Batch of 2 targets.
Target 1
Amino acid sequence: MNKSIQLKSNFNEKQIQILEVAETLFAEKGFDGTSIRNIAKVAKINVAMVSYYFGSKERLLESLIVYRTSDLKNQLDNLLQEDLEPIDKINKLIELYINRINSNRGIYRILHFEFTSKKREQNLQAFSELKKGNLKSLETIIEEGQKKGIFRKDVIIPLITPTILGTFFHFHMNKPFFENLLNLKTEDLYNNYIKTNLTKHIQQTIKALLIYES
Amino acid sequence: MNKSIQLKSNFNEKQIQILEVAETLFAEKGFDGTSIRNIAKVAKINVAMVSYYFGSKERLLESLIVYRTSDLKNQLDNLLQEDLEPIDKINKLIELYINRINSNRGIYRILHFEFTSKKREQNLQAFSELKKGNLKSLETIIEEGQKKGIFRKDVIIPLITPTILGTFFHFHMNKPFFENLLNLKTEDLYNNYIKTNLTKHIQQTIKALLIYES
DNA sequence: ATAAAAACTAAACAGTTGTTTGAATTAAAC
DNA sequence: GTTTAATTCAAACAACTGTTTAGTTTTTAT
């Protein structure tokens, strides 16, 4: 059996079954807060299967990241090649980010939570490359807008991603607080608020920051 | 030695010693990732002392939050009463937030990490009240600016805090990435970047979002 | 100096942790 | 149909978890 990290998503059904349960539990209770026995119970498999298929709990996490983040780059490249005004590209990029993170909440929560501490820095490499690529795409769009004289030139481009993603994450990480504050009683209301108001707020913010007013 | 400093909190020296070690370790490795024996070893105390002084590991966390967040409200109230233009108040508020979080990274990292999962919702009450108070202060300032015709009226006020704090957190949570990207080789350079560029970026962003342009 | 209270300790408790083992079952190859 | 390989399993492993206990030392009050 192949216990090494698999770069493409050539996971078999059993592995995917384990990965998806792990995603749910890691997202819910954190990596350290989730035990292999817990995963095994929910996935209805034997405890030994995690070691058998992935080698270790740590490598299960690595595999999960590969499994979930392999196609973001393509989506971004497609966006770049569309024939749109820079500001519309930015708006679409924000929408893409939020949609993607919102419909893959589990893995992004895990990434957000687990990949900050020093102890997982060795696994950070692939994730870091992904982030650099994303930044490059954003940079391309903004420089295009600056050349056209539409965008200001005194913005710090690498800090725009933190504003986009940070706003979303901070909102989402404080879900119970905002559910209560904004009366979003059902999951549907909450999701709808993200899709409309939160997305609009972020777009409005980034636009205000970028657009040059004479 | 200097007992006059701890006028407010009713924790004794030993408790504070434990709390500060716990803060460091919880921030570094998370609540679940830190064991009582680990805390005891670093704090050079017996394992039983945590139970003795705080009752349980969970209650140690609660005490830590009380110990670290008890004086934020006063700082905000003082700011509100200053005689400043709304936009200057906003800028000062952003500076206050960032300074405070930045010099209490440990506890805010813990709050950020531990108080999102459902399982700690019972401890969430006090923290939630603190956040609501903070939002009220921000609201007061913004409404003042709107009355004066300086601020736009179509901004969603509860989403401004996520933009301020989210930007900072996302930057700080991805510290290794940005250290590398922006060549912030020393801790001093990193801190300086936060104090100048990141703070300015956030102020610039919020100003752009708020200021009404005819 | 003596008694009561507080602080501290090593050891034990009962669970849980990630991982490995060796045998049993199933599937694939011949 | 037999052999070989892949999969699954219960059980065991040693290490670690939060907490309690019962006894000792230190501090405080009288």
Target 2
Amino acid sequence: MPEPTIEVELPDGSRKVLAAGSTGADLAAAIGRRLAKDAVVVEVEGELVDLSRPLPDGAKVRVVVAGSDEGRQVLRHSTAHVLAQAVCALFPGARYAIGPPIADGFYYDFELPGGARFHDEDLPRIEQAMRAIVAEDQPFERAEHSVADGLEIFAAQPFKREIIEGVGALGAGDVDPELAAEAGPVVTTYRNSGSFVDLCRGPHVASTSRLGHFTLTRVAGAYWRGDEHRPQLQRIYGTAWESEEALAAHLHRLAEAERRDHRKLGAELDLFSFPDEIGSGLAVFHPKGGLVRRVMEEYSRTRHEQAGYDFVSTPHITKSQLFETSGHLDWFAEGMFPPMELDGGERYYLKPMNCPFHILIYRSRQRSYRELPMRLFEFGTVYRYEKSGVVHGLTRVRGLTQDDAHIFCARTEMREELASLLDFVLDLLGAFGLEDFYLELSTRPAGKAVGSDEEWEEATEALRSVAVAKSLDLVLDDGGGAFYGPKISVQVRDAIGRTWQMSTIQLDFQLPQRFGLEYVGADNARHRPIMIHRALFGSIERFFGVLVEHYAGAFPTWLAPVQARVLPVRDDHDASAQVLLAQLRDAGLRADCEGASEPLGARIRRGKLEKVPYLLVVGDDDVASGTVGVNVRGSDAPERGVEVAHLVARIAADAASRAVTPPIAGVDEAARA
RNA sequence: GCCCGGGUAGCUCAGUGGUAGAGCAGCGCACUCGUAAUGCGCAGGUCAGGGGUUCAAAUCCCCUCUCGGGCUCCA
């Protein structure tokens, strides 16, 4: 009589016959040795389960390997368990809360007895304890329990009990789905030693020896369930990967991000600073940073002018009434600086937004449909009272300048306006070398929202169809829009793959209503315009910071504060150097000259560190033959004997082209990438 | 705002109760040089600010400001 068997279906449609009771591990082994080694969990009918669980007959299965996104999540989750086990061993009485995998790693939240805190010095010994657990090859043993048993097991773990109680209340409808998901419909636990058991839905790797390519990175405070009114826990972050190479690559990426940090480069390249005397989150731009900023603004102005915008200017402070009418004082007050009170009791606020001012310009007289769409643009400097803990370099500040515009249009014009606007946005970002985008569309929130169904539907659909037409990835943030209108935001991937939210396009059905905006239509009746808020850079400060990081401080020639620097080899080449300098400047280029008070090598070095696109050397040969030695940024060898007029034209062409990197003679773009 | 860790010369940092230091940058002098650091010298600090403990505080304690890493939020 044959042994009983089961049959499973693999992702390629093929079928595999296995002995009854075979597990995911058995399946992987049956397919191949390499797969058996790489397997961490198995997907059964769309659900990830432990390798040790028997496979059901007839199931669709897929072996998940360590190097996949899902595999890494499992590794990280399991590593988090080991972290909790190590902490519980080293800090008796520690309570453990949750420890999920996150992008690139994991964390685990703890409450230490007596309100004790982790310190950086604790990380190495915790890591050592984790490595000991890994070396012991402890199996992760899954078990299922009733809610009552779960509460019993975790009698001394209030956070676990709270999660279990959430599971017990499933069906009551008011359970945080994330917490419920942590445990599943029944209470499952994973035990990997006599002393350590954790509440967890799983799955996990088979045993701790599967782990090991991890490191703990930092300690931080975090609120239980992210709620600042609940206890603050101690969080330990770590990163974990499938191999030493992957871990090393990740650590290298972190180092690269640090090298590009705009705060560091901002000081090194003398671009901007944050003087303590002024206050947190308030930047000053130095001459070189100010220059880059001015070029950005000038380019933006030109483009807005071409796109049919009108330029306006509005004050930085206003009486409180304006923000009462707009509603900002109702829902944005804590994001605003406190008011200045005048003798008469009148209160003035610094503006956190420009919209109400632009609205007043619209409303300054009766408007005709012939004037629409009216596009009012301003580099508007606004002030927002960010909480002290959140300010961060130029990306999160308290004083910022938006490239802000408000478009007032008829509903019939809305679709076309949005379409051209998205084109404009992507084209402008592209001009700054940001080419890799995806879009996020935030739609109508459930419950009350301002504006008619038709307006919402039409606007959302317009945004969606325009995005689809651009064949960009569109991430739906369903119900994530504000109550006053749908929104599309442009997420940009930078040179090292990080994403930043830059531009936003926001429909607003509310403010036209609150301010009673109207226009007279062709039908001689009054109509309410629709309002679009939009910022392309978002904030100039943030955009500037992102550009610094994107280019690692090496701005394209058209943006570079110093585009070319002339270096005479000796003092007696100075006259020729000055002639060259004048020619460069006559060509509209930003150039300077550094005389021979230091050796040429030192001046070359400084120019390279300052990331000047063109370093031009003038020596005996050049004086004699009207040439120059050219060092193009990014090239490892200088070009000698380049004819001056040709060189000037070449740099001017590079600047005018707004190319991302200066062209190097004899090297095409593809070869440099 | 809350938690953890910082703040010493322009920058990067050493100095843990007993006379404030180094490298780089700056300034001066010399060097006049062909592609990533020329040499010598000088100057530079209320050790973030304030209060306290002590014979004595950069160092120990308290408060404030500020920076970094997080939580939360967002442009």
